[in-house]
Every structure is written in structure tokens, then in C-alpha cells.
Design a protein that fits this description.
Blueprint: H1 3-15, E1 24-30, H2 37-46, E2 51-58, H3 64-73, E3 78-81, H4 88-98, E4 102-109, E5 115-119, E6 127-129, E7 137-140, E8 148-156, E9 161-169
Parallel strand pairs: 1-2, 2-3
Antiparallel strand pairs: 4-6, 4-8, 5-7, 8-9
Length: 175
């Protein structure tokens, strides 16, 4: 199958609307190489904000770079099913892994008088996968002279429940 046969349908699927708080689950099946592997992988990378791409390589000729690359850039999982191999167990595991809950609606609450910037902006993160690390870098306006509280709030997609966690930040004590 040539690259355009995969690329155009994938573009169309990635454009489809999503349900807020739930990334779209896309399963890409292929039995061979494509002519533009890097373009397809880049398409996936550019469009993962609200989607996850899982890949299944079917047969001994499936492109390892396409299968692994799309799954990695698509925050998904991948499997290879060799010729004459029973796919049931692998597909069941892939489907189970794809149903991993996510956290969404991530926000940080803090004293805006004390904080100059937060990178990345928590509102720019549509979801975080189980086991995925999310680092936030907070820059204060000058030397911190008082204690302040920073709260992380998010929604658990599995139970549709809000959660919050707080940390108190204190100024350094001079030596």
C-alpha cells in the first residue's frame, strides 16, 4: 500500500470531532511498507492533541519503523502479528492497553501576584496518560518572600471525578 493510501484516510480520521476529556482511539493496521513513512509519522505527531494512535503490523513484511514510529508519536501501543500467528491474545492486550484511563482538564491554581510564568500552560495539555510524567516549571516574580500554595487540579476520565493536590512553597532560608 502506498503512502497516500494511508495518509489521506488518516488525515480524515484525525479531523473528526472528539468527546471532551477522552482522546480518540485510532487503530492503524498495515501489512507492508509505505513510500512516505516519515510523513505519516509526522502527521500522527502533529495531531495527537486529542487522539491516540495504536498500530498493528500484520505479516512478516510490516514496516517496523512505521508501526513503532506511529505508536510512539501517537501516544499509543503497537503489536506485530507474524504470518501464521494467532492474533487473538495480542489484539486483546492491545485493546486492554488502549482503554487506560486518562486525566484531563488539568489546571494549576496559584497566587498570580507571585508567579510570573508556568511552562507548559496546563490548559494546553488535553490529557495525560497513566504513567506519563507531566512537569510544570514555575517562575516566580523575583525572590519569594512568603509561603504560597500551588494546587494541581484535574479530572479522572474513568470515574469522571475531580481531584486536587496542593503543595506549599516556602522561601529559602538565608544561610
Amino acid at each position: 500500500m502506498g503512502g497516500t493510501e494511508i495518509e489521506q484516510p488518516l488525515k480524515n480520521i484525525l479531523k473528526e470531532n472528539v468527546i471532551e476529556g477522552y482522546p480518540k482511539q485510532i487503530f492503524l493496521l498495515t501489512d507492508g511498507e509505505v513510500s512516505n513513512t516519515e510523513n505519516v509519522i509526522e502527521l500522527v505527531r502533529r495531531n495527537i492533541k486529542y487522539s491516540r494512535v495504536h498500530t498493528i503490523g500484520i505479516g512478516n513484511g510490516a514496516s517496523e519503523s512505521l508501526i513503532k514510529g506511529c505508536a510512539e508519536k501517537g501516544k499509543g501501543y503497537h503489536i506485530f502479528i507474524k504470518d501464521n500467528e494467532n492474533p487473538s491474545e495480542k489484539i486483546i492486550q492491545l485493546l486492554t492497553d488502549s482503554l487506560t484511563p486518562v486525566i484531563s482538564k488539568v489546571s494549576l491554581k496559584y497566587d498570580k501576584e507571585l508567579v510570573e510564568s508556568v511552562v507548559p500552560n496546563p490548559e494546553s495539555i488535553p490529557y495525560i496518560l497513566k504513567g506519563e510524567v507531566a512537569n510544570f516549571y514555575i517562575t516566580f516574580k523575583g525572590q519569594l518572600n512568603q509561603k504560597t500554595v500551588i494546587s494541581l487540579e484535574y479530572l479522572d476520565s474513568m470515574n469522571n471525578l475531580p481531584f486536587a493536590s496542593s503543595v506549599e512553597v516556602s522561601p529559602d532560608t538565608p544561610s
